[in-house]
Amino acid sequence: MMQNAFQERARGRTALTFLKSVPQKNVLETSVHPDLAYLEIFAPRADALHLLHPSLIGPDTLKRLMSSAPVTDSHCGTLDKIEKPRDNSYKISGRTTPCDSRPSTDCIILSYVGRQAERIPFTLAFPIVRHSEWNADFVDTLIPGTGPYEIEAWAFDISGVRLYKLAGQLSFP
C-alpha cells in the first residue's frame, strides 16, 4: 500500500508540474487537490514563492524543451499504436525502457507536429506501475481537425527536467 501511495503522489507531482501547459484534470483532482479551480490559483502562487520543485512548466517552456531536445530516438521507449475505440476518442500506447540509468519514466508527453513543424503537446500518459507499458486516452478535439498530423511521444525526467524522444511516429487521423 505504501508503494502504491508513493506512485500516486509521484503522478500527482508530475501532473502538477504540467498544470500550465498540459493540465490533466482527472489526475490533478484525484492526486493533488479535489478543486482544480483552486489549484490553478494556488499552485502559481506557491511556484512564485519557489515552493514547487521543479517549477511549473508553461507552454512556452515545454515547447522550448521539445525543440532543444535531440530529435534522434533516445532508446527510452517506443510509441507503438493508436486505436479508435469510440467515435471521437482514441487510445494511444507504447513502451518505456530505462533512460539515463533511471529505472522508470515519470510521464510521457504526447505531441503533434503542427504546420510550421512545431511540436504542440496535447496530453500526458503515465507508465503502468511496475510495467514498461503506458497508454493514454484522448478525444479528437485536442488536435485540430485540419490534419493529418504526426504524433510523437517524449519521456519526461522530472528530476532533471529533461525530455527524451521515444522511437516512432504515428499518423493522425
Helices and strands in order:
Elements: H1 2-17, H2 25-31, H3 36-48, H4 59-68, E1 77-86, E2 89-96, E3 107-113, E4 119-127, E5 133-139, E6 149-157, E7 162-165, E8 170-172
Helix pairs in contact: 1-2
In short:
The protein contains four helices and eight strands; from the N terminus they run H-H-H-H-E-E-E-E-E-E-E-E. The N and C termini lie far apart (40 Å). The protein has helices at residues 2-17, 25-31, 36-48, 59-68; strands at residues 77-86, 89-96, 107-113, 119-127, 133-139, 149-157, 162-165, 170-172.
Keywords:
8 strands; single chain; Immunoglobulin-like; 2 domains; 173 residues; 33% strand; alpha+beta
Report on this structure.
- With 173 residues, this protein is α+β, with helices and mostly antiparallel strands.
- The chain has 2 domains: 2-48, no CATH class; 59-172, Immunoglobulin-like (Sandwich), CATH 2.60.40.
- It is 27% helix and 33% strand.
- The chain has helices at 2-17, 25-31, 36-48, 59-68; strands spanning 77-86, 89-96, 107-113, 119-127, 133-139, 149-157, 162-165, 170-172.
- Strands 1, 2, 3, 4, 5, 6, 7 and 8 form an 8-stranded antiparallel sheet that branches.
- A hairpin with a 5-residue loop joins strand 4 and strand 5 (133-139).
- Helix 1 crosses helix 2.
Report how far apart the termini are.
40 Å
The CATH class of the largest domain is identified as Mainly Beta
**Count of separate DSSP helical elements:** 4
- The number of strands is 8
Rg, rounded, reads 16 Å
